[in-house]
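Discrete fold record:
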Amino acid sequence: GLKMRKQPTLKGEVVTKLELYQPVFFLNQKTEKEEEISLGYEKVTDHWVKVRTKEGKEGWVFGAGVHYYKMKRKGVLE
């Protein structure tokens, strides 16, 4: 699975564990810089993103491991 953390770093305290690609809600925050993280078989470079689960838990997850619903913004083409 995927760990949701209090801070956007691998050293951040784990809030909860998510299923890989579990749908979560994107809270419109992501880290400025990307990080390279090994997902087992491959290394992936992505941002950390701040998300909320259906249960209401909030924290940071590595972007490559989640499907998040982006916030709808007016004027943005889908």
